[in-house]
Specification:
By secondary structure, this protein is an all-alpha fold. The chain has 11 helices and 2 strands, in the order ααβααβααααααα.
Length: 284
């Protein structure tokens, strides 16, 4: 576990340094990272205390009371990376960027949660897809949406301190509100295990659909190579966890592998476009 934690902090630190040093507003980005991490700790700590829906493995070395430090430090880069990708796909400052960021984190959470639970990093007490309840995955998305929304608004308001401080409170409070309403309104009454075959099949249908959309509209041309490579770094880490902990579960492996084709398509489109440009230059 110690090596695992070192890798997590290394990937996170690398991401933060890249955007702090090379970004146009590195100082404000670093402040936002700290604020989101604080809000993430509040959300995690209060969820663990109030709901008792999940618990972390005792093998984590550094705990911030209940949640592990490494889980908290992952949150800000995860949300920012989703916001950055959504902004490139839709255009920076577009109205639906926070919603798209939440949707991206929804897929990230489905990937990370299932692999992490399979690896014994934490465990849920409610059923769902591969032992992860849907409300847990949606909670990630809600938190990310609120953080991305405040990040967008903060940029528009020139990073006024009083508004930035809302990042500490609003995502945590909003996530609690969402969890309570969705649990008692929906999931409390339909919270059942979802069949592995159905889960894997659904993941592949969505994956193939996204690949078709990306090819049809050449989406990869709008995404920065750096963004995809940074996401690839984290993805490789979790795919390594998959290899070590799949234990021959065919449908679980199929489910996780389904997350790869859309990103591979984006990267392939960038490579093809670059090759086409080089060919044109040579012919000229």
């Amino acid at each position: 576990m110690f090596l695992f934690e070192i890798i997590i902090i290394s990937i996170t630190a690398f991401y933060v340094v890249i955007f702090t040093v090379n970004g146009p507003d590195g100082r404000h980005f670093l402040l936002w990272i700290v604020l989101v991490a604080t809000s993430a700790w509040i959300a995690e700590e209060t969820c663990l205390r109030l709901y008792d829906f999940y618990s972390y493995s005792h093998s984590w070395h550094i705990l911030l009371n209940h949640p592990p430090l490494m889980v908290i430090v992952v949150w800000p880069p995860l949300v920012h990376c989703a916001w950055d990708l959504a902004s490139q796909l839709l255009g920076y400052g577009q109205r639906f960027v926070p919603l798209a960021a939440g949707a991206i984190v929804l897929t990230d959470a489905a990937f990370i949660e299932t692999v992490s639970v399979r690896s014994g990093l934490w465990a849920w007490k409610e059923p769902g897809i591969f032992n992860v309840p849907l409300i847990g995955i949606l909670g990630w998305a809600c938190f990310a949406f609120l953080c991305a929304f405040l990040y967008e608004e903060g940029r528009r308001r020139n990073y006024r301190l009083w508004f930035s401080l809302l990042v500490i409170v609003l995502p945590a409070v909003g996530t609690h509100l969402f969890l309570l309403v969705s649990w008692w309104g929906v999931f409390r009454w339909i919270n059942i295990p979802i069949e592995a075959k159905l889960t894997a099949a659904t993941a592949w249908i969505i994956s193939i659909g996204l690949v078709f959309v990306f090819i049809r509209f050449r989406v990869g041309l709008h995404v920065k190579k750096k963004t995809l490579l940074l996401r690839l770094l984290s993805a490789l880490f979790f795919f390594t966890l998959l290899v070590c902990n799949a234990n021959g579960s065919v449908f679980f492996i199929l489910f996780v592998v389904a997350f790869a084709p859309p990103y591979l398509t984006l990267m392939a489109q960038q490579y093809i476009a670059r090759h086409e440009k080089q060919t044109v230059r040579v012919n000229e």
